[in-house]
Amino acid sequence: MTPAPILVAGRWQPAAVADTFQAIDPRCGAPHPTLWPVSAWSDVDAALEAAGGAAAALRQVSGATLARFLECYAERLEARSTELVAVAQAETGLPLHPRLVDNELPRMLNQLRQAAAAAREGSWRTAVIDTQHNIRSLAVGLGPVVVLPPANFPLAYGAVTGGDFAAAIAAGNPVIAKAHPGHPGVSRLAAEEALAALAATGLPAATVQLLHGLSPADGERLVADRRVGATGFTGSQEVGRRLHLAAAATGRVIWLEMGSINPVVVLPGALADRADQLATELAASVTGSAGQLCTKPGLIFFVDDGAAKNAAGAFVEALAGHLRAMGVQVLLGPTARDRLAAAVAGLQRAGAQLHAGGEMASGPCEYAATLLEVTAARVLAAPEQLIREAFGNATLLVRCTDLEELARVLEAVPGALVAGLHSTPAEADSATRFASILLERAGRLVENRMTTGMTLSPAMQHGGLWPSASPPFFSAVGLPLSILRFARRVCYDGASQQILPEALRDAAPEGSPWRQIDGQWRRA
Predict the structure, then answer these.
(1) Does residue 490 form part of some domain?
(2) Cβ(444)–Cβ(478) under 8 Å?
(3) pLDDT (tens digit per residue) in 312-365
(4) Catalytic residue among 121, 281, 294, 389
(5) What is the distance between the alpha carbons of residues 232 and 188, in angstroms, rounded to a whole number?
(6) Cα(226)–Cα(177) distance, rounded to whole angstroms?
């Protein structure tokens, strides 16, 4: 069987095959028939050379032209949406409704169009003009961007469809995408439409390139290559740490979104007031997409001080009952199932009590929805063994004796993408205190809602402190600010009008972006 072609320098061509793989249908565990190549370094080298040429050409391309490509591309993907979601389901096992059709597909199209709007309008460049000294600066693209996507979002975080891709293109960078081995067919289908949209809008053909597989060593070599402007990675902490070290060794920029435990705090008043509601909502949050979301609540802290008339016991039993009723769910693949089982077994060895689930099912990718519990005292005695990510449909309850013990145990929680806080109006002082503690660890605080779910708002922050993400300032979601991850700032000191980019000239530029002129933000 001939391996599928790769997209390099504007054409589909045979790979220099170092190895091959097949994607797995998680619903039955059987491999899909297509053989995908793991490329040798010569393919990577060719893609880097082509991307360098595209980057030089893109420096002369207007934001309006980039926007036309992103909009054309979104239209073409929307026209093939039925096929896209069918392939995505076959490769990931994620349900069509509501996950792929109702949630992820609209999000993918929305962020491509938001990136187009940001590229056309131009305020993301944050142009600053000092007319007295004739010093002017703005953000420009970094150069070729490598996109390394996760397993759990084949569309919204896909190699050639996701937020990193959209932001990189909006900044004027070519993209070298490496498809995730869990859903290579989605990436290939999307890349076909990207290539057509490039031709339709006149952008360099090498603006979008696609490799299907790389060895770990070549992946590290790629992110460290001097020709790479930046890398966007979403995935496990294990792989992210290796890529971070490789990129840092040569001073390359890499943006990491990794595993996250996402602590949730339930204050005593909330527990007494709405234990059943919290149990129902948390169960849905833990098992949505089989728990394979980076925002899943992985640690749920509550206080059992005996004052809530056994609300704590009722809460635990209700949550366990919901998860038992959920039963077995299909995970993304055999590796995901095995890693979750190992994490749950490790928590049990460290002293966590099992309330629900904790077992594999007959299917090769199935695992039962799982609830474990441990005391805060035991967590404080062995934090490294008990504060660990269990990626999938499992969560750990942490029972605290009072608010002071809750505050102490939260000190052991590492950086997270998001944290949740549930309280009542009567607990305003405690809520303020614990909101502050949680925001020392998380990039986003969600109050009296579940941590799962995310709005594509310009104000959204989807990043956090190490080891959930790095660097902690910028966000992987929230255009136009997420574009700045793939840009650098350049300064024109004493330059004449004719060599200045349009956004820094005295005349108002196309799109009427916000610019800071002599200390005041102005538009047109």
Answers:
(1) no
(2) no
(3) 999 999 999 999 999 999 999 999 999 999 999 999 999 999 999 998 888 889
(4) 294
(5) 19
(6) 17
Q: Are 371 and 397 in contact (CB under 8 A)?
A: yes
Going by DSSP bridges, is the β-strand pair 299-303/394-400 parallel, antiparallel, or unpaired? Answer: parallel
Preceding peptide of 467 cis, ω within 30°? yes
28 carries an active-site annotation: no
Name the token pair of 198.
């490039």
Nearest to 225, CA basis, from 478, 83, 45, 78: 45
In the DSSP assignment, the letter for residue 362 is: S
196, 296: one domain: no
pLDDT digits (tens, 9 = 90+) for 434-461: 999 999 999 999 999 999 989 999 999 9
353-356 β-sheet, strand order: 353-356, 370-375, 394-400, 299-303, 263-266, 416-422, 442-447
376 residue type, one letter: A
Catalytic annotation present for 72: no
**Please, are residues 278 and 422 in contact by the beta-carbon 8 Å criterion?**
yes
Residues 6+ apart with CB under 8 A from 347: 372, 374, 385, 386, 388, 390, 396
Same domain for 237 and 307, yes or no, is: no
Axis-axis angle for helices 105-121, 163-170 (nearest 10) = 10
CA distance between the termini of the chain: 59
Tell me: do 137 and 244 sit in the same domain: yes
As a 3-state breakdown, the chain gives helix, strand, coil percent values, each rounded to 5, of 45, 20, 35
Q: Of these residues, 91, 193, 220, 257, which one is catalytic?
A: 257
What is the reported pLDDT for 362?
80
